[in-house]
Amino acid sequence: MSSAPLAARLSIPSGPLFFPVTAYDRDGAIDLDVYREHVRRGVEAGAAAVFACCGTGEFHALTPEEFQDCVRAAVEETAGRVPVVAGAGYGTALAVRYARLAEEAGADGLLAMPPYLVVAGQEGLLRHYTELAGATSLDIVVYQRDNAVFTPETVVALARTEGVIGFKDGTGDLDLMQRIVSAVRSEVPGEFLYFNGLPTAELTGLAYRGIGITLYSSAVFCFAPEIALAFHRAFGSGDDDTVNRLLDGFYRPLVELRAQGRGYAVSLVKAGVRLRGLDVGEVRPPLHEPSEDHLKQLAQLIERGHALLEEAK
Known about the structure:
Elements: H1 6-11, E1 17-18, H2 32-45, E2 49-52, H3 64-78, E3 84-88, H4 92-105, E4 109-112, H5 122-134, E5 139-144, H6 152-159, E6 164-169, H7 174-187, E7 193-196, H8 205-209, E8 215-218, H9 225-237, H10 240-258, H11 264-275, H12 292-311
Parallel strand pairs: 1-2, 1-8, 2-3, 3-4, 4-5, 5-6, 6-7, 7-8
Helix pairs in contact: 2-3, 3-4, 4-5, 6-7, 9-10, 10-12, 11-12
């Protein structure tokens, strides 16, 4: 088990950052045995970290008890080989509760998702995340998306907050992100981590790399780890020919398919895991399953992605 700080373990990942789906049985209850297998397969395939019960893991659909059971299962299955980062969200009081549940379950850190529903000003957002950081010993990565979009000045304040080690962007606003990176670099000494957190982040990896952001989350790793690993290796080594071949032949068509349905950033990924032979169940409402035609297209895309890997040999 590594005793290195979370920031050090995430800063130069040996493989993709893995966001496992949450497994349900036929009755819709949590299936911890299948979930454990999903996590175990991901770690054995080369994941550098496990982000449990986050967006792809349907954090929004889990009870606090289910959340803690899944985080604990992820911690036990990784056995210290890679860090486990758990989701935390909703209003401040509930975010603190989830943080403490994750801490009790043995997590190494938190991905702090946007507060529920409200569109808050910068002062309120800063207070929310600083109160969360002050209530837990876990290191925190703040997730920018939807109703939690930050000015560079607010991110500077977050970077100065003890326990906040990084910032994940899910907006795709590169102008804003360049200004954030510049402001933090100019005003806060030391390392601060940035992550590309867009759905199917590989598609925008080259653009984010242009402003110095190379860390990213990989939903594809859930169902096609071979493809995700090949992309990660090529991206990290500067093999842009391979990167572009996978972008053109696999990732761009996947993103276009994902755009065909609301919630497909989760339900299409979960369907992909089932297609690869692990029955993780369906998504919980209000998400819905992909259509039969879209499932066929996904299966064809996975096959095409593997063919691209064979062509490169």
